[in-house]
Design goal:
The complex is a heterodimer of chains A (about 400) and B (about 290). With about 400 residues, chain A is of the alpha/beta class. Chain A is about 45% helix and about 20% strand. With about 290 residues, chain B is α/β, with parallel strands linked by helices. Classes of the chains: A alpha/beta (about 400), B alpha/beta (about 290).
Chain lengths: ~400, ~290
């Protein structure tokens, strides 16, 4: 038996004393409110009637021919809000309401989780404050505007690397000060226990749907599955129902300029340590100072990763590989042109890794790729990158 | 004669106190190594009873803007764990009061938990405070501290439940760090009733000294905590801010520290005089 809140040696609750009360309260809510029939009915209603679940599992004829295997996309890009983040945001916002919290705070990198939280707050009547690094606000302007329109307040973060890591720091500082009436609606499978397992549980709807959809279509489980990993919520949501099945699992990390340059590939290039409340792989120097990550994709630009991924890496259950910025942009265009689907830059990392993995697959073998979000938010950035690099459209 | 164990230094300071002990914080290496050493010596000269040296971490989630900025300055100026221990070794030659190290879990874990406490003890530190290690994660840290003969200081906050309070008191040593305000470190205008009543509650349930920190920045604050029976008071951001404002000014920085700390010390030295006897803390130390 693992101790509470641990995945092997990873996880735990490394937080200031003041927050322990909130974590215990949340843990209590996870074991009483979430399993209750009332809550289940409510979350199922919102996921189906409001968010548009189940999302399709699309067979890709063109890519399958090109890669010589059977490629399916799990279409989280078609979920309301345009990314998988809403599964978790709706779940936690409902939970916050049940717990009597009137305010939720969130961090956001690419802005997708901020938008999802703003949406959930609007529909469920909670006030929403979103912390966002000012560098990310610049590269994700459209999502900042969306959050404002949805009635959320976006608080610019100017400390540290001014990206996702620092937005989480500020959200934690806010939570310590306002712990009695505020729920911290964390956006990924990171942070102190019970966040990593709670967020995973809200995201496993992805993997559960895949399971029944692929059984219906192919009558069997896939050979391989691929997802991108920043904090790792879409990946764990996809992988979790298959951990004990003979399915090869692959995580695409932000390789940035390559592992010898600036990157965000925490599992491929990091070492274990404590950041944001849990023991997990990190990018750090020899003295334990956290290093700044880099990725073309704001959603993967994070020097930590969910603790369960650290465990799955050590166990060898999931293979994590870096995908460079350049490869991601190339695959962004590849999916757009081949299938008429513009992926988020985060998801484009998974597309790139799928293209590599497909080399080891036979033509009748099945590969499922989690298309975690749509790319509208990234079109301007990719256009700029292509102009600078004289890339051709 | 038995070797002098550092933990004795902390216990003795509390035993011999006339009023609440003045615990002053400074960031190791802020604004640079040499000035930081001068700050520590100035704190000791001005009458600090305990000096808390903060080893900065890149992501200090328990700290407000003043300590964040100071930590960032120190890291840019090259502060690291090696230099922390040489700084403590150097000042230990001249400073006789107890020295505490405050930091974050990852700084200690990357050094190796046992190695960190051993080096801390050898350098002359008397206790370690880790901002993001609550009781539930404290086991390895407490064991390493005991092995090196130094104290692991644990926190109690307004949100600590009675069940957890009991557990924390069961394994705490040195003193209890009372988190006197919700939120991050930083100066605050006043002291809340909640902080005072928490202080009284903890003192009733433990023989250990109880020392509030967070938001304490003036002689008035210190007098208020003295009246409530605090065994010490921790002043952090107010001093750290003063160092930041006077960086590079040489003797001016030291005199600014001397006069501010002198004022705080005067308030603390008034001790428990003029305070109703029923609220005066007994020396319950064993």
């Amino acid at each position: 038996m693992m101790p509470i809140g641990r995945f092997g040696p990873y996880g735990g609750r490394f937080v200031p004393e003041t927050l322990m009360y909130a974590l215990e309260e949340l843990e209590g809510a996870c074991s009483t409110i979430i399993p209750s029939e009332g809550f289940r009915t409510e979350i199922e209603y919102y996921l189906k009637e409001y968010a548009g679940r189940p999302t399709p599992l699309t067979f890709c004829r063109n890519i399958s021919r090109d890669l010589s295997c059977r490629v399916y996309l799990k279409r989280e890009d078609l979920l309301h809000s345009g990314a998988h983040k809403l599964n978790n945001a709706l779940g936690q916002a409902l939970l916050a309401r049940h717990m009597g919290k009137s305010r939720v705070i969130a961090e956001t990198g690419a802005g997708q989780h901020g938008v999802a939280t703003a949406i959930a707050g609007a529909v469920l009547g909670l006030s929403v404050d979103v912390y966002m690094g000012i560098d990310d606000m610049e590269r994700q302007e459209m999502n900042v505007a969306r959050m404002h329109m949805l009635g959320a307040r976006v608080i610019p973060v100017r400390s540290g690397s001014r990206t996702l890591k620092d937005a989480i720091n500020e959200a934690l500082r806010d939570w310590v000060a306002n712990v009695q009436d505020t729920h911290y609606l964390i956006g990924s499978v990171v942070g102190p226990h019970p966040f990593p397992s709670m967020v995973r549980n809200f995201q496993t709807v992805i993997g559960k749907e895949i399971r029944s959809q692929i059984m219906e279509r192919e009558g069997r489980l896939p050979e391989a599955m691929v997802a991108c990993v920043g904090g790792g919520s879409n990946a764990i949501g996809m992988f979790h129902p298959f951990l004990h099945e003979p399915v090869r699992l692959f995580g695409a990390e932000a390789g940035g300029e390559g592992l010898s340059g600036r990157h965000g590939a925490t599992l491929c290039g990091g070492t274990p340590g404590v950041l944001h409340g849990s023991y997990t792989y990190l990018m750090q120097d020899a003295f334990g100072q956290i290093l700044e990550s880099h990725s073309i994709s704001a959603g993967l630009d994070y020097p930590g990763v969910g603790p369960e991924h650290s465990f799955l890496k050590d166990e060898g259950r999931v293979i994590y590989m870096p995908v460079t910025d350049e490869e991601a942009v190339d695959s962004f265009l590849y999916l757009s042109r081949m299938e008429g689907i513009i992926p988020a830059l985060e998801s484009a990392h998974a597309v790139a890794l799928a293209r590599k993995i497909s080399e080891d697959l036979e033509t009748d073998e099945i590969l499922i790729l989690n298309l975690s979000g749509r790319g509208d938010k990234d079109v301007e950035q990719v256009a700029r990158v292509l102009e600078v690099g004289h890339g051709s459209f | 004669m038995a070797p002098f164990r550092p933990a004795d230094r902390l216990a003795r300071a509390f035993q011999n106190r006339k009023g609440p002990l003045l615990v002053t914080c400074t960031i190791a290496g802020d604004p640079d190594y040499d000035q930081s050493r001068a700050v520590i010596l100035a704190l000791a000269d001005a009458g600090a009873d305990i000096i808390e040296i903060v080893m900065p971490f890149s992501d200090p989630v328990a700290d407000g803007p003043v300590i964040q900025a100071a930590g960032a300055r120190a890291l840019v100026a090259g502060m690291n764990t090696d230099r922390l221990f040489s700084l403590i070794r150097e000042v230990r030659k001249e400073v006789i009061v107890p020295i505490l190290i405050m930091s974050y879990a990852n700084i200690i874990i990357q050094r190796g938990i046992e190695a960190f406490y051993e080096e801390a003890g050898r350098a002359g530190a008397d206790g370690v405070v880790v901002a993001d290690v609550p009781f539930e994660e404290a086991g390895p840290f407490c064991r390493a501290a005991r092995k090196s003969g130094i104290d692991q200081i644990l926190f109690i906050s307004q949100t600590t439940t009675p069940e957890r309070l009991e557990k924390i008191l069961g394994s705490a040593s040195g003193f209890i760090y009372l988190v006197a305000a919700l939120g991050v470190t930083g100066t605050r205008d006043g002291i809340t009733h909640e902080a005072i009543s928490l202080l009284r509650r903890v003192k009733e349930s433990s023989p250990l000294p109880v020392v509030p920190g967070f938001g304490i920045s003036s002689a008035d604050h210190i007098r208020a905590y003295a009246r409530a029976g605090a065994d010490g008071v921790i002043v952090g951001s107010a001093i750290v801010g003063l160092v930041g404002d006077n960086a590079g000014r040489g003797m001016e920085m030291e005199s600014a520290i001397s006069s501010f700390v002198g004022e705080l010390k005067a308030a603390a030295s008034q001790g428990y005089r003029g305070i109703p006897p029923e609220t005066v803390p007994g020396t319950k130390l064993t």
